[in-house]
Amino acid sequence: MSDFDDKLARHISALSKEKQPERDLWRGIELGITSAQNQISNDDHSPSTVTSRQWIAIAASVCLVTVLWLAAPFAFKADESRSDGYALINAMSVQQQQQVNSLLASYQSTPALTQDWREQLKELDDAADVIKAALKDDPDNSALIKMLHHVYQQQIALIERVHAPKWQQI
User: Fold this and answer.
1) Torsion angle defined by CA atoms of residues 59, 65, 71 and 76, in that order, rounded to the nearest 10 degrees
2) Is 49 in contact with 43 (CB distance < 8 Å)?
3) Cα dist from 166 to 79, 117, 133, 170, whole Å
4) pTM, whole model, 2 decimals?
5) DSSP-based three-state secondary structure for 109
6) How far apart are CA 28 and CA 103, in angstroms?
7) Is the distance from CB of 147 to CB of 94 less than 8 angstroms?
8) Residue-wise pLDDT tens digits, 55-85
9) Angle between helices 47-106 and 142-163 (to 10 degrees)
10) How far apart are the C-alpha atoms of 145 and 19, rounded to whole Å?
């Protein structure tokens, strides 16, 4: 057995490491490259290619117009939902203003404990205006809505603390 293995190993080592083709392939490769280049240049100038390119352009244009036409109702609905979302914020602002006005009317005869409370109320109003301006761009932003609600709560708490502090109620 080892005699066979040794013989096989000698024959394998005697073989050439490179496999040579039976005939010269470069002529076929050159003809293939030349004919491919000629076919590409002929296709560029043939009337059927120009026509097929025009059809592709027309089809792409029709697809684009169709997609835009189908997407248009959704774009308008997004604008409507923005206005609906901001309508909720407007309603919240109107309700807040009514509540502040009624609190101020009920505490009209009660003296305020500090003199600068109206300035603080004005600062809170300014903060609410800034938040409402941000909500015009993004009316569904829950963080901004929570901030606006918090500012409104601070306004009411300020009015109540200035006119009827908890230590007077005891």
Assistant:
1) 180
2) yes
3) 46, 17, 34, 7
4) 0.49
5) coil
6) 98
7) no
8) 777 777 777 677 777 776 665 554 555 556 6
9) 10
10) 78
Q: Which residues, at least 6 apart from 69, have a Cβ–Cβ distance to it below 8 Å?
A: none
Q: Are 155 and 100 in contact (CB under 8 A)?
A: yes
- Give the least confident one: 10-24, 78-92, 152-166: 78-92
- Helix residue ranges per DSSP H, the chain: 2-14, 26-45, 47-106, 117-137, 142-163, 166-169
Whose CA is closest to 148, among 164, 160, 131? 131
Exposed, middle or buried by CB within 10 Å (0-12, 13-18, 19+), for 18?
Answer: exposed
Burial of 143 (0-12, 13-18, 19+ CB in 10 A): exposed
Q: In the prediction, which pLDDT does 170 show?
A: 47
